[in-house]
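Appendix B. Raw example, untouched.
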Amino acid sequence: MPSAPASPVRVGTATDQGPRPSQCDAVTVTRIPLSTTWAAALVDGYGPHPDVPAAAQGAALAAIRSALSGGSAPAALETAGRTLTGRDADDWPEPDAVGAVAVGDDQRVSVAWTGDVRAYVLDPDGQTLHQLTTDHTEGARLRALAAAGEPVAEDPAEHDHVVTSTLGRLAADPASMGTATHSGPWTAVVLTSDGVHDALDHAELHRIVAATADPAQCAAALVAAARAADARAGAQAVDDNATAAVIRQG
């Protein structure tokens, strides 16, 4: 018997600048023509350079163009990195950014990332939200050392915003890219910048994704919840650009 047609894919994004002086997050999602494949890119630019917002937008668009031409998630992320050609006096990328690209269809999701942009997959029953990415930060590295029994003198939480891989450094250090694949059915794929997932714990993020079937409403709810959490946190607020992309089947 012929296989059942793939469920239609619906997408939504939301972003909020927050109290930061500029919007340095960039997000775009597209469906690949004449196929069930889709691609999403979320780029989080950082640093005081005035060209960071434009650089983040350019990197996200370059990633999507690569995916539209048949590129894999890692190839699309590498393409995004190649747009960041500026260098400071010490030959470090400037402006620079972190980011994630996801490419998928109804049975498979592939993700490539740098830094602390995250990707999640919601199981078909809605009971489990898997985090596909692992943060490339100094805080995460210190936690891993502590978990392995190594002595750690510093508080890892104090280093969670020190990223250890970036898009601008990929050309010089391609091994720094993270990759992951989810094989099998899924209900939703979610990409978030740290302005969302640093403000919300995993249980709250899961609750919103599982309860909100419309992807645009889901993305908006994630950003709104992050802003509400910031308001409650007072001096401990994340107060960063907050961005989410949601891809949903059915």
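End of appendix B.
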